Amino acid sequence: MFKDFIDSAEISPPVAATPPAGAAADWTVPQHWERFTAEEHAVWDLLFARQQEMLRGRAVRAFAEGLDVLRLSRPGIPELGELNARLHARTGWTVVSVPGLVPDDVFFAHLANRRFPAGNFIRSRDQLDYLEEPDVFHDVFGHVPLLALPAVADFMQALGRKGLEALDRGVLDRLARLYWYTVEFGLAREDGALRIYGAGILSSFGESRFSLESAMPRRRPFDLAEVLRTTYRSDAFQTGYFVIDSFEGLLDSVLEADLDALYEAVAPLSDLDPARV
Ligand code: HBI
Ligand code: FE
User: Fold this and answer.
1) Per-residue b/e over 91-124, b at no fewer than 16 CB within 10 Å?
2) Is 80 helix (H, G, I), strand (E, B) or coil?
3) What is the rounded CA–CA span in Å between residue 69 and residue 80?
4) Which of 104, 173, 179 to mutate to test the pocket of ligand 1 (most atoms within 8 A of CB)?
5) Pocket of ligand 1 (CB under 6 A)
6) Are 156 and 111 in contact (CB under 8 A)?
7) Domain locations in the chain as residue ranges
8) What percent of the chain has pLDDT over 90?
9) pLDDT, tens digit, for every residue of 225-237?
10) In this structure, are strands 187-190 and 193-196 parallel, antiparallel, or unpaired?
C-alpha cells in the first residue's frame, strides 16, 4: 500500500499484533540517529535534492515553507530531537520512530495524539524509486512539512480520531479511502493551478510529474461521499485523483460531516472505479 512507483509487485507484510523486541507498547523505538551509516544519510540527501527540484512549482506553496522544519543543523536523515523541537513549536506535532508498518489501531492512536509514526529505515541507493513499506524519506519528507500547517495538523489529528472510530464500527476500509485520496494522493487547486499535497506523490519522483501532467488519470473535485466509495490501488500510479480547494475546506468538510450517517448511506451503493469516465 505504500509503493511510490509503478511496476513493483504488491507485497503485504504481515503485521504482528505485539510490538517487536526493542519496541515500546505503542510500537515506537529510539531513533538511534548515530547508527545510520554515511551511505544512508547520502541516500536521504540525494532523494531530498532530487525531489525538492522536482516539486518546484508542483507542490502546494505550504510545502516549501514547511520544508524549513526539515532544514536542520546536520545534513542527512533528520535527527528527530531537533526536528521535533521545530515541528512541535509550530503545530504541537512530533514525529516518532517505528520499525515499519504498525497495526491500524496503533497508527491512528498516534495520529489522534498528534504524533506521526515514521519508519526508522531508508531505502537503498539501488531502489531509490521502490518502496515496500513507508521509509523515513516517505514519512518525513512526504508527510512532515505539511504538518507544520495548522489546518493540515488538525486534519491529520481528526483522521486519527475518525480512524479509531471507523475501526470500532468495522468500516476502516472507508476511512482508509479518505486517508488515501487526501493525505497520501491528494491534489489541490491553488490560484487556478493544480498542485500536489499528498505525501505519496510528494515523495515519488515519477508520480510527481504523472499526477499533474499525464493526460491519463482522472481528476475530480473532492467530494467526501464519492471518495468513500472509490477504490484505490497501491501498486501503481493512481488512475484517479481528487482535488481540494483549500485545506481549511477539507478540514471543515470532515469535521462537519456526520461520518456514521455517511458510512450508512454509502454502504448499499456500489464501489466506484477511480478511472471511470
Ligand atoms: N503504519 N508505519 C505506518 N505507516 C502508515 O502509514 C500506516 C501504518 N499502519 C496502518 C496504516 N498506515 C493504514 O491503515 C492507514 O494508511 C489507513
Ligand atoms: Fe504515507
Assistant:
1) bebbbbbbbbbbebebbbbbbbebbbbbbbbbbe
2) helix
3) 11
4) 104
5) 98, 101-102, 104, 107, 117, 119, 134, 176, 179
6) yes
7) 33-266
8) 89
9) 999 999 999 999 9
10) antiparallel
Residues 163, 171: Cα–Cα separation, whole Å: 9
Q: How confident is the model at residue 276 (pLDDT cuts 50, 70, 90)?
A: confident
- Is the CB of residue 247 less than 8 Å from the CB of residue 155? yes
pLDDT at 211 over 90: yes
The contacts of residue 171 (CB under 8 Å, 6+ apart) are 263
Instruction: Tell which one of 27, 101, 115 to mutate to probe ligand 1, the residue whose CB is within 8 A of the most ligand atoms.
Output: 101
Alpha-carbon distance values, 154 to 148, 167, 236 (Å): 10, 20, 29
- Ligand showing the shortest atom-to-Cα distance for residue 172: 1
Element (H or E) spanning 190, and its range? Answer: strand 187-190
| Active-site residue, 234 included | no
CATH of domain 33-266: 1.10.800.10
Residue range 78-116, pLDDT digits in tens: 999 999 999 999 999 999 999 999 999 999 999 999 999
Q: CA 239, 243, 246 angle in degrees (round to 5)?
A: 160
As a dihedral over the C-alpha atoms of residue 254, residue 257, residue 259, residue 263, rounded to 10 degrees, the angle is -110
Report H helices in the chain.
38-55, 61-66, 80-91, 104-112, 136, 144-147, 150-169, 172-179, 199-202, 205-213, 224-229, 247-256, 259-266
Q: Looking at the predicted complex, does its ipTM rise above 0.95?
A: yes
Cell numbers at 20, concatenated: 517487536
3-class DSSP assignment, residue 245: coil
What are the distances in angstroms from CA 251 to CA 93, 151, 224, 254?
17, 7, 11, 5
Q: Any idea which ligand is nearest the CA of 184?
A: 2
